[in-house]
């Protein structure tokens, strides 16, 4: 939920997310839930029951980062978990209805990336207003959460991503997974897999790629890879593999 990259890939995409959180919420089980008659897969947060990353069998993806444009008062209490809000987004046929109808005021500020068909939509709630931006699906994109990374660190991380792109005119899902796991400047406080004195650390890496009517969803718990999860869905042969 705190470091996210998007890459175009063979007419589809690769979306990858690193989750930075308290180690008390480390090992998460990937579960499925039927939402609006579609199976949705997501790593379930052990505290809220929600998630920061979810993928449905009809190819919709939702990915959450905490915070909007700037840090907010984190001592403030909110009635609605952002992880529940992410799952609720799958109840809506289109993003416009979600934006118009949902009660975002009950939630802390967030940045939510929604992939629907050939659209990438960035939905930002800043605590007062909702902001919608259509993201170019033919270009690479990179986000870092404002709640953990100040602007100069976010710029440095984006620079490292841009440099990686220059060195990888072609890439695979495994390549970007390696970058998310080992990339950085050697600063353990701000690398892509970070650790701030075991108070906040990178707990997992989740990704989904789509190409040639095939989807692959992968989740890796960094502290216990035996609890990791992979699912492939082939639209030519929709039997789960």
Describe the protein's architecture and organization.
The protein has 241 residues and is α+β, with helices and mostly antiparallel strands. It has helices at residues 82-88, 95-101, 151-167, 173-182, and strands at 3-9, 12-21, 29-35, 38-44, 53-56, 61-66, 110-116, 119-125, 130-135, 141-144, 195-196, 200-211, 214-221, 229-234. A hairpin with a 2-residue loop joins strand 7 (110-116) and strand 8. The mean pLDDT is 93.
Quick recap of the structure?
This protein is α+β, with helices and mostly antiparallel strands and 241 residues long. The protein contains four helices and 14 strands.
Query: How far is the N terminus from the C terminus?
Result: 27 Å
Helix and strand sequence: EEEEEEHHEEEEHHEEEE
Mean pLDDT: 93
What characteristic shape results from the CA principal axes? globular
CATH class category: Alpha Beta
SS-based class: alpha+beta
- Determine the CATH superfamily: Penicillin V Acylase, Chain A
Report the sheet-strand fraction: 35-45%
The number of helical segments is 4
By CATH, the architecture is named 4-Layer Sandwich
Helix percent band: 10-25%
What's the Cα radius of gyration?
A: 17 Å
Architecture blueprint of SSEs:
Layout: E1 3-9, E2 12-21, E3 29-35, E4 38-44, E5 53-56, E6 61-66, H1 82-88, H2 95-101, E7 110-116, E8 119-125, E9 130-135, E10 141-144, H3 151-167, H4 173-182, E11 195-196, E12 200-211, E13 214-221, E14 229-234
Antiparallel strand pairs: 1-2, 1-10, 2-12, 3-4, 4-5, 5-6, 6-7, 7-8, 8-9, 11-12, 12-13, 13-14
């Amino acid at each position: 939920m705190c470091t996210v990259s998007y890459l175009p890939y063979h007419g589809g995409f690769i979306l990858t997310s690193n989750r930075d959180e308290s180690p008390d919420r480390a090992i998460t089980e990937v579960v499925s839930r039927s939402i609006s008659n579609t199976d949705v897969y997501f790593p379930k947060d052990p505290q809220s029951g929600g998630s920061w990353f979810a993928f449905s069998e009809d190819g919709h993806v939702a990915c959450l980062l905490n915070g909007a444009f700037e840090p907010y008062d984190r001592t403030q209490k909110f009635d609605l978990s952002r992880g529940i809000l992410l799952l609720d987004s799958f109840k809506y046929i289109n993003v416009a209805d979600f934006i118009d109808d949902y009660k975002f005021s009950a939630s802390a500020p967030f940045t939510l990336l929604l992939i629907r068909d050939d659209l990438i939509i960035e939905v930002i709630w800043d605590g007062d207003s909702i902001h919608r931006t259509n993201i170019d699906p033919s270009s690479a994109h990179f986000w870092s959460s404002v709640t953990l990374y100040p602007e100069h660190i976010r710029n440095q991380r984006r620079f490292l991503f841009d440099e990686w792109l220059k060195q990888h005119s072609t890439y695979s899902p495994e390549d970007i997974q390696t970058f998310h796991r080992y990339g950085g400047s050697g600063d353990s406080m701000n690398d892509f897999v970070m650790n701030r004195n075991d108070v906040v650390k990178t707990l997992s890496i989740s990704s989904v790629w789509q190409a040639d009517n095939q989807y692959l969803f992968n989740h890796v718990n960094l502290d216990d890879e035996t609890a990791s999860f992979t699912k492939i869905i082939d639209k030519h042969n929709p039997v789960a593999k």
